[in-house]
Amino acid sequence: QVNHVKTDSSIFRLHTNATVILLVTFSIAVTTRQYVGNPIDCVHTRDIPEDVLNTYCWIHSTYTVVDAFMKKQGQEVPFPGVDNSQRSGALTIRHTKYYQWVAFTLFFQAILFYTPRWLWKSWEGGKIHALMMDLDIGICSEIEKKQKKKLLLDYLWDNLRYHNWWAYRYYVCEFLSLCNVIGQMFLMNRFFDGEFMTFGLDVITHMEADQEDRMDPMIYIFPRMTKCTFYKYGVSGEVERHDAICILPLNVVNEKIYIFLWFWFIILTILTTLTIFYRIIIIFSPRMRVYLLRLRFRLVRRDAIEIIVRRSKMGDWFLLYRLGENLDSIIFRDVMQDLANRLHNNQHHRVPGMKGEIQDA
């Protein structure tokens, strides 16, 4: 759903809109077998039905032999990670079972990224849309335009300096987005790179002499060929052990997804960190607020902007900035000029009723 009312920044929408769409799309792609392929295909014998072996190995996970990743394919081992597990020892076996949870994890990540947007929609309460009153379209009758501008001007006058809490809640949502993406990067690094860093050094040391034979590190993190052990009763009642080689075509898709997400999260982290510093500067620098309003809305006179920023607070600046992005530029210029004139003519601004008493106190 496309929302034409802008209540947040473009960086925030990258978190809550673009990233959510990407994660949900990836989750659907992983679960759609007819487009991606079977999640697992195992080489089986006639004694074990194909469907039974594939289902068993998918449910109970497969494994790879760590020492086999550093051996030459085609000479020492048939595939990277596939070797005689009994000869290598049980301590070198690495079980692969995360592929069962990729689709659910991606969907859960999408929920986490959407949470700040849901919070901001609840806290924002449709304020921007209500104050717009269809003034984003400059073509309307002069009487209607004058009435709506007066209503908007009266609201800004009566509620001046009482929007800080409203704006700070948006800043909290931006900070939650930053914490969210950093936390997910940490978990991805912990889950994948935590094991890969140590193993990567071993691979580089072992194959330093032969650059061409170096193994792709992604094969260790997302193995294409794995092993599976299936036990069954034989004809004489003895337990028989059957080893199978399994192909994981879905891991090719998982690899591309997580590589893209890793760099996407890095970009989001950098942009959101800069945005947080930008917000801190805005909070403590009224001069920067004047500069940004002047830079964004060229039609508004500088003296009007300076009067409004000097007589208002940061939350009012945030509300005016959001209104300026949604209203017609001519109408927004008139509202800002009228508000500046009213503030200039009334040096002792007093909000009537309970708000005025609290403000005077």
UniProtKB/TrEMBL annotation:
Bilayer-crossing regions: 12-30, 98-115, 168-187, 257-284
Entry-linked InterPro entries: Innexin
GO cellular component: gap junction; plasma membrane
Chief subcellular location: other
Top-level taxonomic group: Eukaryota
Matches recorded under PROSITE patterns: PANNEXIN
Membrane topology of the entry: Multi-pass membrane protein
Coiled coil: none
Localization annotation: Cell junction, Gap junction; Cell membrane
Keywords: Cell junction, Cell membrane, Gap junction, Ion channel, Ion transport, Membrane, Transmembrane, Transmembrane helix, Transport
Gene Ontology BP annotations: monoatomic ion transmembrane transport
Role description: Structural component of the gap junctions.
Protein family: Belongs to the pannexin family.
Stated name of the protein: Innexin
The species this protein was found in: Anopheles gambiae (African malaria mosquito)
Organism taxonomic ancestry: Eukaryota, Metazoa, Ecdysozoa, Arthropoda, Hexapoda
